Amino acid sequence: MVTDYNKPFLSIAEQIALLESRGMYVEDYAEIEYYFRNEGYYRMSSYWYPFRMLDKTGQRDDLFVKGASFTHVIQLYEFDKWLRSIVLSGLRGIEISVRVAVAHELGAKDIFAHENPSLLNPRFAQPANDRRQKGKYQIWLEKYRHLLLRKGQEDFIQTFIDKYGTKIPIWLAIEIWDFGMLTRFYDGMKYQDQQAVSKQYGVHDPKIFSSWLNAFNYVRNICAHHSRLWNRALIRQPRIPDKGVIPLLDHLTRQRNMASRTYTILAMCSYVLQQMQFRGLWLEPLRFLAEKFPSCPSLSLEMMGFPENWKTLELWQDK
Which residues constitute the domain of residue 53? Predict the structure, then answer.
């Protein structure tokens, strides 16, 4: 049943008073005012959610658990901010590498492979049955051509267009694609070409790798839009390989619902970056941040999906 929203507007001082009335301890009023003024009450509210009491039905109450303070909220907020930054840096490396891998694989067959539907999976390349609708490849191609003609293009691409026109080779075209376009194009490639790419990242099943790319793109967008990541239940979930397929990731099969956990994305990032021999600059900041996870009531790394013994796992060791 939908009802009209009728809660009153609250000033920052009234917002602070409301939190205190519900049991939140505020040490520094200037600090909380800074966060409410610059980050916003409702953005911060997702970080004090874990400190809210559970009622008899298991739902969160408005009241806070004993010992909850706004300092804990800030610590969690800052942890999540640094987590997003680290994850984004790893995904950036993966995105760029996969772009190049796709361009090398298909460019050897046709330098304009991205505009040659005969090189793609027929299910992706075929027009829609209904003339009033567009096929997947047609939608992808229209977006690509729109981006190609967009103002403010990379200088080297604009120089090429000025000299040769808008039919550009795939190794230049990939520089226009965002992560979403890359994942959709990879989904539309033929199986053998997908596998040739995925093997470079230690994944022999292209369907598994495709699910990883789609999940990486989803998480990348979370990070880019400054949304909460640390304990988020992921909607677009990667496929976890069966035990023995990728031994370094076998521990993901030991817990339920791991595909929706942030830790799983971190583990898969770590694995792919390791195959790229790029992980050294990424691994240490992540391990350091995990060690700095807020030490306070109601919080633990296990809420992100971290196994209790994660630091001893081979996946997280220096190579």
Answer: 12-68
| 137 in the same domain as 55 | no
From 49, 68, 87, give the residue that closes a domain.
68
pLDDT for 154-166, tens place per residue?
788 888 988 999 8
Question: Total domain count for the chain?
Answer: 2
Q: Please give the torsion angle defined by the CA atoms of residues 109, 98, 183 and 140, in that order, rounded to the nearest 10 degrees.
A: -50
Q: Which long-range contacts (C-beta less than 8 Å, at least 24 apart) are formed by 45-54?
A: 46/228, 47/73, 47/76, 47/77, 47/80, 47/228, 48/19, 48/24, 48/73, 50/76, 50/231, 50/298, 50/299, 50/303, 51/24, 51/297, 51/298
- Asked, for residue 173, whether it belongs to a domain, the answer is yes
> Lowest-pLDDT range, 129-143, 171-185, 304-318?
129-143
User: Is 63 inside a domain boundary?
Assistant: yes
Classified as helix, coil or strand, 75 is helix
In a domain, 234, yes or no: yes
Paired tokens of 103: 């361009």
Same domain flag for 122 and 24:
no
Please state, in angstroms and rounded to a whole number, the distance separating the CA atoms of residues 287 and 27: 30
Is the predicted pLDDT of residue 28 greater than 90, yes or no? yes
Percent of the chain with pLDDT over 90: 81
